């Protein structure tokens, strides 16, 4: 595959990468080729950290995992965690991940969105986990990430009913941070990335690492990261610039 036939279209600049799920004939359903492409992209961003914007082609984020592939998978495939491990890797990228979600984000598509640090959406958003209706469970992150986003009571209701959440409810329960018209969605994601880019990358990486650390590691993990930043020349430069501006 090459060019427009790739399952993940990637554009790169100095401080960010935009990755577009690109299987419009399958509503961007996440298949093995997409997972392989996500792993390759993660390897790149682990080596050279940049903000990642994830989005989907043709008015859909991802309508789910590829059901034709899922139907043929057996117990050993489940234990391999094909999607789960890829989404963990996305979530653990050093720099922030922004999901720009238009239209459907269902099943594995929703779980990929949950792996992002920040989620923006359009008014056409339809997000949820209908896995139990297909005789499986949401095993690629929803069972632990969703409750961290919307709370235990809301998360278990959504997972057990498998119902679809529409845009306004998603905004109300904190599943997405903001809603934007379709034409403005990617620009809104870039605006968030611009704001992140103005900050110190080392401090951003440290903040994400501390935020995702288990509760029993606090406050030790915070203090160790802060200790490293206190010795940073960039901290001194930025604070000096702040003081000089204030004193003018």
UniProtKB/TrEMBL annotation:
Database matches in InterPro entries: ClpP/crotonase-like_dom_sf, Enoyl-CoA_hydra/iso
Source species, domain of life: Bacteria
Designated name of the protein: Enoyl-CoA hydratase/isomerase family protein
């Amino acid at each position: 595959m090459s060019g427009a036939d790739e399952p993940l279209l990637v554009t790169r600049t100095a401080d960010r990468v935009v990755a577009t799920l690109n299987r419009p004939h399958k509503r961007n359903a996440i298949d093995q080729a997409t997972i392989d492409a996500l792993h390759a992209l993660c390897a790149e961003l682990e080596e050279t950290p940049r903000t990642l914007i994830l989005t989907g082609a043709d008015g859909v984020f991802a309508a789910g995992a590829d059901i034709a592939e899922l139907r043929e998978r057996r117990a050993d495939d489940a234990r391999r965690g094909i999607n789960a491990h890829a989404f963990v890797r996305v979530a653990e990228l050093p720099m922030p991940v922004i999901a720009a979600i238009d239209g459907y984000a269902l099943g594995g598509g929703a779980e990929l969105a949950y792996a992002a640090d920040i989620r923006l959406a359009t008014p056409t958003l339809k997000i949820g986990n209908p896995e139990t209706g297909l005789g499986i469970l949401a095993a690629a992150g929803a069972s632990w990430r969703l409750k961290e986003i919307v709370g235990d009571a809301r998360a278990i209701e959504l997972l057990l009913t498998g119902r679809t959440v529409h845009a306004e409810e998603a905004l109300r329960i904190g599943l997405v941070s903001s809603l934007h018209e379709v034409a403005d969605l990617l620009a809104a994601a870039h605006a968030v990335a611009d704001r992140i880019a103005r900050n110190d990358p080392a401090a951003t990486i440290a903040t994400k690492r501390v935020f995702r650390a288990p509760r029993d590691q606090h406050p030790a993990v915070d203090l160790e990261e802060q200790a490293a930043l206190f010795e940073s020349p960039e901290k001194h430069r930025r604070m000096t610039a702040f003081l000089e501006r204030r004193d003018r």
